[in-house]
Amino acid sequence: MDKNLEATLDYIVANLVAGNYQRLLVESQVRRMEPEDIQAAIAEHGQLTLPPAKGKKEVYVTEVRGSNEVHIDYFLWVDGSLSDLMVRIVAYQPLSEGKFSLWDIYAP
Fold first, then answer.
1. Among candidate residues 52, 55, 35, the one with its CA nearest the CA of residue 43
2. Per the structure, how many domains does the chain have?
3. Which among 81, 77, 75, 65 is positioned nearest to 89, based on CA atoms?
4. Which CA distances in Å does 50 have to 13, 76, 83?
5. Which range marks the domain in which residue 25 is found?
6. Contact residues for 32 (Cβ-Cβ < 8 A; gap 6+)
7. 41-96: pLDDT as tens digits
8. What is the secondary structure of 25-94 as a DSSP string?
9. Which residues contact 53 (CB under 8 A, 6 or more apart)?
10. What is the pTM of this model?
């Protein structure tokens, strides 16, 4: 995975775990959710935790042709274990700028 993309993903996950939902939404290029929506989606599954340093990362990256968008679907860790809860992020090229939209939090 691109190091800039990985840094953006790590930043978003760390802020989700810390409960900094408003901060992420302020930085999001497109606002699709409210802090209460994020909190409710997470609360249904338990307590978000950071993945272990060498833990399994389930991440799917799709570059959108004809666009500056990169779609990222990442399985979150809940209560110390990999869960079925995912965060969908749209990152924007150039990835070095770290621009993103927090698109959705869901369980497929």
1. 35
2. 1
3. 75
4. 7, 8, 12
5. 3-106
6. 101, 102, 103, 104
7. 999 999 999 998 876 678 999 999 999 999 999 999 999 999 999 999 999 999 99
8. HHH-SS----HHHHHHHHHTT--EEPPPTT----EEEEEPTTSSEEEEEEEEEETTEEEEEEEEEEEESS
9. none
10. 0.93
Side-chain half-sphere exposure of 60, counting CA atoms within 13 A: 6
Which amino acid does the sequence have at 72? I
AA letter at 26: V
Instruction: Show Cβ contacts of residue 71 under 8 Å, excluding neighbours closer than 6 positions.
Output: 61, 62, 63, 64, 88, 89, 90, 103
**What are the backbone dihedrals phi and psi of residue 97, each rounded to the nearest 5 degrees, phi first?**
-80, -15
DSSP-derived letter for residue 14 is: H
For residue 76, what are its two tokens?
Answer: 């979150």
Backbone phi and psi for residue 91, each to the nearest 5 degrees, phi listed first: -100, 155
Q: Measure the CA dihedral 62/37/7/28, to 10°.
A: 80
